[in-house]
């Protein structure tokens, strides 16, 4: 027992003594994107630049909340977020990027205030069961889902950031009344609430529901593991709000005294190497030209044609959306 | 104040020594910080929107759902743990050691894995589909969440009840039998009253856990109060309203703490008899043996078999190029914080529990309740409060292991209280007094007479904390030094991206890793005081 | 006996909780070296609390304790040099007998263990563990452990209550001899009057936190101050009477008093001091019950509507219903209880 106590005390002392040691050439990244996807990219970045990257992984929301709490004392240099909602919430803490920084980024993916850059694009899609849904049953518009024939068959995830961004876009494009009517219609039609995108897809495979409203890059992972996975994805009719184009992105923290390395990292994310990696490994859309598209996805060109014309900069009113969802009893 | 009064039996007027007061104060401050922080954030609220958020009818519904869920989890958990604890302590069931191990093991299963397991039993990938070709709709909602939560929290009830059974003098049951009481009546009138404090204390711990859990509940699509808090933080990035909701949750906790205090007050459960308690004569199960084994098998299959199968299934889906070195490193890194955190937690728990037991009074009661409050504080709020205070008070320590471990200790302290309280009560104050009448100082009396016999509860409490830390997520995510990753962070990072196969080895490691310690603990626990004294170096 | 008592206890008071009566109130006594004092009384009378205050486990609210003239009221238990043997012995279960004995010993040598064990007649038990010992053996080890610490005073809290009757008598005699030889002071707490009378030199009888009477066993037995003492220590007959100086009129006729008194009084008459004679005619009593106990007999006699016990060694064998003459040999004791 005594030995154990001594050993444990020593271990404790060692651990407590180890504060984070900052070396000269580092960059500290808060990543709301998962380690499995990000870690190889980081390695590549370190190899290319000689900068040591300290990465803090977590969910986008937790990292955003952490950044808010840390405020001016944050040790972070860069925040890489999963969705534009978090980027918008933190825009006050981001530094304005130098002019021309986003020149390579496609017009549709740019932030007007130049506070953050999109690192990948993704599209809202409809996933459906291949067993219980016929081609003819597929809805042309997301508003069709309030029809009687979809009663109790549709999954959604009202707490999910991408879904909320979609609702905001809906409000911008068609007005608050229309958005509210659609949400009420969905509730009346017994849409089933899930936590996020992945659980909706699994619910379809499990036979709980037949349709789900998710981002485009989730299904690839299930189908990649099992080609017979009984779920497929599709878009609504051209221009439908349900086909909204969204982004993941990164920003440089304004209070960081390491602006140079931080910008280098964000630049790296926009580089062809990184973009190609995200496109293939993440099943997402690149934000620049000259990248070989993911073969499982519809070409970005097509996507741009069918996606609604909503400026990503206009969908910043998250509060209004949360109020709407809250009043409907979804939050 | 002097050392001399430290361990006095009932020294009312002479207060407790600084040796007990300083740890107690530390606990008081540590667990109050999040409440301060929550109040501070809450005061930033805009009154108009505030009333809309706080006085929503939906909150009532969520609170009601929370209560229902707590009731279901406690009912299922007790229905499993009570018979299991009886079987391994009072019956002649063979392999009681192994059964104990299997009953304690599910504690190591992370909540989201258990929830996945239950969902995975049916559905597309499910057992039913795989073996019988039918796709069953999975168990979700209240019963799904209740089952998932109870299947990995019942071991906590089991371990507490088991040690309560072990500490109970079998002579009482024998007396009752000689008085012509039926087994059922003995259970109701003799055993249950003695088990009651252990039962209520573990209900409290499990109940508070259920109130704060989010992982399993989210997967089970059952909307409870923690859901509302999570939504405020993650959906709305709104700390102010999340703070209000957290404070509402804490108000419920305080009510629960008062209730617990009321139902267990004035109950004495140290043995009044003399000498050492005998071992209970095992009760022959007879024809019930088959039933007992069936029960054990069912519980083991549900609580361990299912999650392991699901993990195996994920891994079979295609084990990617696993970086085994990384896995090993992560496991070591996890040990590096969970070990010290568990050790420091029990080390802190001993003086605090001593204060509570030996110096009962308002101070002791407040500190005791505060420890539970710390445990019940939503972990995300706890972690953010630590961020705030660390940056304000000790910026040098921010994102250091020190702050991370401090947060673990404060948030899991209550877990160590149960075993240590039970241990100290069963040892009683008499032996210490005997030592002092032989001329030993209070410290020496405690060190030579009480501490050696406290080893079992010490290890038990430490283990509970250790396992919780290994599974813990929000506090680790927020407070860990940048670049530090644990097994559970890896599981989370991968499942979050839908990479189940990649997550599986890490989840499996959590279970295997913890099971090593569970085994070690039970092996240790089964020895008597004497055997331990003999095997330890003199 | 020396001039300074070994232990001196003055006006001890202890109250648990704010309301209600004190557990111990105004308790004072002295103990000479080598003397054995028994604190006796019914359960809850405050005797154990008194003992714990002397040991140092319970702080007195008021009063002083001194050992060999030195005030120890505020001295911590371990510095008092007072040994205590608990009712449940409190042997350390994780230590063997030898380590138990050596725990408080001044000299930590094998000889100390051997000496302590031989003193209690348990030679060779050093390597046993407490749970391998019988109750009596545990009791004696607890005593040996206390001895080894060489205290000047040992406190015994109901030490024999867990032993069976036969073992209790033997152990008690052995231990008394042992303690007397060692010449240290003893305070024993018990509720067993016979134990107190046979074990102690002096007794202090407690009720409701106060010492009601103290003195030698014989003094208290022969001259109880009140009905409580008279009935707690032995059996007695409580008889009303009208006192006039040294004499008193009672249903038994006129009896002599141990001390003069006047007016209505309550008298104590021990059964063995009463005499029975077969009455020629009505007599002053009638036998209502006979209990044959071998070497003596107890008669239950109805005397003017009052039931009296009479112990008779040898005398006439009377049957139930016999008319008898009841008389007192020696003196009746006036109790301070109201008549």
From TrEMBL, chain B:
It comes from the Bacteria. Coiled coil: none annotated. Residues 63-258, 331-523 form the ABC transmembrane type-1 domain. The keyword Transport applies. InterPro entries: MetI-like (IPR000515), MetI-like_sf (IPR035906). The keyword Transmembrane applies. GO terms for cellular component: plasma membrane. PROSITE patterns: ABC_TM1. One of its GO terms (biological process) is transmembrane transport. Keywords: Cell inner membrane, Cell membrane, Membrane, Transmembrane, Transmembrane helix, Transport. It is a multi-pass membrane protein. The chain crosses the membrane at residues 18-40, 60-86, 98-119, 139-159, 195-221, 241-259, 290-315, 335-357, 369-391, 397-417, 458-483, 503-522. Its main location: membrane. It is found in: Cell inner membrane; Cell membrane. Belongs to the binding-protein-dependent transport system permease family. This is Iron ABC transporter permease. It comes from Paracoccus caeni.
Automatic annotation (TrEMBL), chain C:
Pfam families: ABC_tran (PF00005), TOBE_2 (PF08402). The keyword Lipid biosynthesis does not apply. GO terms for molecular function: ATP binding; ATP hydrolysis activity; transmembrane transporter activity. The keyword ATP-binding applies. SUPFAM superfamilies: MOP-like, P-loop containing nucleoside triphosphate hydrolases. Keywords: ATP-binding, Nucleotide-binding, Transport. This is ABC transporter ATP-binding protein. GO terms for biological process: quaternary ammonium group transport. Residues 7-233 form the ABC transporter domain. GO terms for cellular component: ATP-binding cassette (ABC) transporter complex. PROSITE patterns: ABC_TRANSPORTER_1, ABC_TRANSPORTER_2.
């Amino acid at each position: 027992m005594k030995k154990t106590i001594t050993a444990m005390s020593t271990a404790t002392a060692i651990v407590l003594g180890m504060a984070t040691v900052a070396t000269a050439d580092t960059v500290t990244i808060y990543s709301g994107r998962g380690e499995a996807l990000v870690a190889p990219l980081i390695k590549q970045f370190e190899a290319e630049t000689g900068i040591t990257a300290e990465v803090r992984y977590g969910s986008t929301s937790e990292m955003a909340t952490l950044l808010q709490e840390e405020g001016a004392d944050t040790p972070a240099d860069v925040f890489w977020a999963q969705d534009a909602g978090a980027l918008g919430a933190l825009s006050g803490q981001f530094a304005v990027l130098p002019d021309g920084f986003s020149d390579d980024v496609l017009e549709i993916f740019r932030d007007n205030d130049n506070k953050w850059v999109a690192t990948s694009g993704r599209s809202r899609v409809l996933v459906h069961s291949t067993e219980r849904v016929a081609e003819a049953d597929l809805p042309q518009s997301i508003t069709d889902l309030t029809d009687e024939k979809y009663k109790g068959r549709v999954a959604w995830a009202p707490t999910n950031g991408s879904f909320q961004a979609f609702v905001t876009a809906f409000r911008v494009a068609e007005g608050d009344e229309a958005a509210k009517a659609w949400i009420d219609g969905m509730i009346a039609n017994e849409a089933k609430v899930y936590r996020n995108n992945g659980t909706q897809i699994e619910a379809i495979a499990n036979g709980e529901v037949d349709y789900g409203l998710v981002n485009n890059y989730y299904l690839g992972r299930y189908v990649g593991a099992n080609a017979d996975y009984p779920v497929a994805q599709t878009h609504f009719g051209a221009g439908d709000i349900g086909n909204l184009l969204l982004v993941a992105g990164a920003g440089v923290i304004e209070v960081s005294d390491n602006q140079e390395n931080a910008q280098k990292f964000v630049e790296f994310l926009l580089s062809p190497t990184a973009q190609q990696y995200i496109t293939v490994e993440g099943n997402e859309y690149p934000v620049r030209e000259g990248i070989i598209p993911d073969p499982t996805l519809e070409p970005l060109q097509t996507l741009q044609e069918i996606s609604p014309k909503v400026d990503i900069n206009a969908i910043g009113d998250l509060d209004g959306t949360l109020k709407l969802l809250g009043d409907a009893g979804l939050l | 104040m002097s050392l001399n009064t430290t361990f006095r039996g009932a020294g009312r007027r002479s207060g407790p020594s600084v040796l007990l007061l300083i740890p107690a104060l530390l606990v008081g401050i540590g667990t109050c910080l999040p409440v301060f922080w929550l109040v501070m954030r809450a005061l930033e609220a805009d009154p108009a929107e505030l009333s809309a958020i706080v006085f929503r009818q939906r909150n009532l519904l969520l609170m009601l759902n929370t209560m229902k869920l707590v009731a279901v989890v406690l009912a299922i958990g007790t229905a499993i743990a009570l018979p299991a604890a009886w079987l391994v302590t009072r019956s002649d069931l063979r392999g009681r050691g192994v059964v104990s191990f299997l009953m304690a093991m599910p504690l190591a299963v992370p909540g989201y894995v258990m929830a996945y397991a239950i969902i995975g039993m049916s559905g597309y990938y499910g057992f039913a589909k795989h073996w019988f070709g039918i796709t069953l709709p999975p168990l979700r909602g209240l019963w799904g969440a209740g089952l998932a939560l109870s299947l990995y929290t019942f071991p906590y009830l089991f371990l507490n009840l088991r040690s309560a059974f072990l500490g109970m003098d079998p002579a009482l049951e024998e007396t009752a039998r000689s008085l012509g009481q039926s087994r059922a009546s003995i259970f109701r009138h003799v055993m249950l009253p003695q088990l009651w404090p252990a039962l209520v204390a573990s209900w409290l711990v499990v109940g508070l856990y259920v109130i704060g859990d989010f992982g399993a509940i989210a997967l089970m699509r059952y909307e409870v109060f923690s859901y509302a808090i999570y939504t405020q933080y993650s959906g709305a990035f709104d700390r102010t309203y999340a703070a209000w909701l957290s404070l509402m949750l804490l108000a419920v906790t305080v009510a629960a703490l008062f209730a617990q205090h009321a139902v267990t007050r004035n109950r004495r459960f140290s043995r009044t008899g003399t000498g050492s308690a005998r071992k209970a004569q095992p009760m022959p199960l007879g024809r019930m043996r088959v039933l007992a084994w069936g029960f054990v098998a069912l519980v083991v299959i549900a609580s361990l078999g299912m999650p392991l199968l699901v993990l195996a299934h994920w891994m079979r889906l295609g084990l990617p190029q696993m970086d085994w070195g990384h896995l090993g490193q992560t496991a070591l890194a996890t040990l590096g914080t969970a070990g010290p955190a568990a050790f420091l937690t029990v080390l802190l728990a001993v003086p605090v529990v001593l204060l509570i037991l030996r110096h009962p009074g308002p101070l002791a009661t407040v500190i005791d309740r505060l420890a539970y409050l710390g445990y019940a504080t939503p972990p995300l709020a706890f972690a953010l409060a630590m961020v705030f205070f660390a940056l304000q008070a000790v910026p040098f320590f921010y994102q250091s292991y020190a702050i991370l471990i401090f947060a673990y200790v404060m948030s899991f302290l209550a877990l160590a209280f149960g075993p240590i309280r039970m241990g100290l009560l069963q040892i009683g104050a008499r032996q210490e007094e005997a030592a002092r009448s032989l001329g030993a100082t209070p410290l020496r009396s405690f060190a030579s007479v009480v501490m050696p016999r406290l080893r079992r509860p010490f290890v038990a409490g430490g283990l509970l904390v250790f396992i919780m830390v290994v599974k813990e997520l929000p506090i680790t995510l927020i407070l860990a030094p940048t670049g530090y990753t644990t097994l559970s962070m890896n599981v989370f990072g991968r499942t979050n991206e839908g990479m189940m196969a990649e997550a599986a080895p890490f989840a499996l490691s959590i279970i295997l890793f913890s099971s090593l310690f569970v085994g070690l603990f039970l092996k240790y626990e089964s020895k008597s005081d004497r055997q331990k004294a003999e095997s330890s170096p003199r | 006996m020396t001039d300074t008592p070994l232990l001196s206890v003055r006006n001890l008071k202890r109250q648990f909780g704010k309301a209600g009566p004190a557990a111990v109130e105004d308790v004072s006594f002295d103990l000479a070296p080598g003397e054995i004092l028994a604190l006796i009384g019914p359960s809850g009378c405050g005797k154990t609390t008194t003992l714990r205050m002397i040991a140092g486990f319970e702080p007195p609210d008021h009063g002083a304790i001194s050992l060999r003239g030195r005030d120890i009221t505020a001295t911590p238990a371990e510095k008092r040099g007072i040994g205590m043997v608990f009712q449940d012995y409190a042997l350390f279960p994780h230590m063997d007998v030898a380590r138990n004995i050596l725990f408080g010993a001044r000299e930590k040598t094998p000889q100390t263990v051997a000496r302590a064990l031989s003193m209690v007649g348990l030679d060779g038990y050093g390597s046993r563990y407490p749970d391998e010992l019988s109750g009596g053996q545990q009791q004696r080890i607890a005593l040996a452990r206390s001895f080894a610490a060489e205290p000047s005073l040992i406190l015994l809290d109901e030490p024999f209550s867990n032993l069976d009757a036969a073992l209790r008598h033997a152990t008690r005699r052995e231990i008394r001899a042992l303690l007397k030889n060692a010449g240290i002071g003893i305070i024993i707490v018990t509720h067993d009057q016979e134990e107190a009378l046979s074990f102690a030199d002096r007794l202090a009888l407690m009720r409701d936190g106060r010492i009601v009477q103290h003195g030698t066993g014989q003094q208290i037995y022969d001259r109880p101050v009140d009905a409580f003492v008279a009935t707690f220590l032995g059996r007695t007959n409580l008889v009303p009477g009208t006192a006039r100086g040294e004499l008193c009129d009672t249903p038994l006729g006129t009896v002599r008093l141990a001390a003069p008194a006047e007016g209505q009084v309550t008298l104590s008459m021990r059964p063995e001091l009463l005499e029975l004679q077969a009455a020629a005619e009505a007599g002053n009593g009638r036998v209502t019950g006979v209990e044959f106990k071998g070497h003596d007999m107890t008669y239950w006699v109805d005397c003017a509507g009052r039931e009296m016990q009479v112990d008779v060694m040898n005398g006439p064998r009377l049957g139930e219903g016999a008319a008898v003459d009841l008389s007192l040999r020696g003196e009746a004791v006036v109790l301070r209880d109201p008549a």
